Amino acid sequence: MRFENQVALITGASVGIGRAAALQLAKDGAKLVLLDIAFEKLEDVAREVGAYTDTVLIYRCDISDEARVHAVVQDALAQLGQIDILVNNAALWRCRSLFVETSTDEWRRFFDVNVMGTVYVTQAVLPAMIEHKYGRVINVASVAGVYGNPKMAHYSATKGAVISFTKSLAKEVAEHGITVNAVSPGSVSPASEPDIDHTQPSELSYMGRTGSDRENGDLIAFLASKEAAYISGQNIQIDGCRKKL
Length: 245
Description:
About 45% of the residues are buried. A seven-stranded parallel β-sheet has the order 3-2-1-4-5-6-7, with helices on both faces. The chain has helices at about 15-25, 40-50, 65-80, 105-130, 145, 155-175, 215-225; strands spanning about 5-10, 30-35, 55-60, 85-90, 135-140, 180-185, 235-240. It is built from seven helices and seven strands, in the order βαβαβαβαβααβαβ. β1, α1 and β2 (about 30-35) form a beta-alpha-beta unit.
């Protein structure tokens, strides 16, 4: 098994890409620590992945709450002894507003979750990875952080920050056997869609469709694997050959 005896922590694991990553990592033998603010949906995912792994810890967690994040990670480490893989997936993203109409409170909320939440979870997990001289960190960014999407200035800014954070951190921890990469999805299927293979037509890619949750989850699983040991500090776009619109 690709991830036998390894522990993966995934944030935002109740739906969409987070759920798909949890399923793939579990199928490949990983023990799981799953975080989400939507605890009831997280319980459903725990039952799903339970078909593939006998170790699943779930926590209700708003990643913008630094104290809660550290408490959850410390509890998971106390129970499992290690965290080998971190998937920073949780984020706010549904937003369509002109910059001049977007409140500073909304800007703060997006940065609190998308940027600082990623920072808090990584800060909590990284010392254990450094101690074990091994780790895989995968940050879920977005093509919005590459191109900048209109009417999504605050979201685009946060994802650009995640990409820059990824590249910087990778350089700091390479000597400890830790890789840090980002994946930037383009259009993806609705998170409410239970079928992880679901796609639908999209004019935003030259392939003419959205990406499936499974396709994104498979990329995350590859970057989490030992086969990706020489890949670090990269932002990999998974966008069906995105049109820059």
